[in-house]
Amino acid sequence: xxxxxxIKDFERVSPELVKKAAEFxxxxxxxxxxxxxxxxxRIRALSPKMKLAGPAFTVEVRPGDNLxxxxxxxxxxxxxVLVIDGKGDQTCALMGTIMMHAARKRGLVGVxxxxxxxxxxxxxxxxxxxxxxxxxxxxxxxxVGGRIGHPISCGxxxxxxxxxxxxxxxxxxxxxxxxxxxxLGKAAGKVESEAKRIAGIKEGKLAAPWLNQSLITAxxxxxxxxx
Length: 227
Fold this sequence. Notes:
By secondary structure, the protein is of the alpha/beta class.
């Protein structure tokens, strides 16, 4: 039996894990996740200081139509991140101030869309986190069906409903719900390692400890040689 177009509920990454994982930058989580899971850089914060973290509430729409986003705003739960596969379309905006107010009132922590937004100045004043491919003053249609609560492709990354989404000025990162907990210890270790490396640089230890061996492996230096 085929699944319905609208799946109203699904398992989400827990609030406890969201709180722990939100302590780490998307870049850190990307590094410990094999440098995968980061959405294409076209999806950027509407304002540089915007950040978000939470489980994905996924929506797929036809380019230029936001009917299913309106439906999603009636179904998403507090703490969710609305993640929209808008096919990268920039010919019109899928959301603006009114819908962002509705999203905030619903308790959502932000919106990630592979599509354009409008009313950027108003949204910045709201300080509601929005990550999009840009802006466009054109409004959308509200006529075409789509899907809610299904796996989507957003920014070139497969995102399942309930996956962990985190974003900051660098961009947006997705970690699979089932995998998130296993990465937290590695992320903490990465933060500690980077802090030690920066401390060493400040003391004058500029060369990375792995550099010589990597140059030898790459054939740039001969065995036993050093920079």
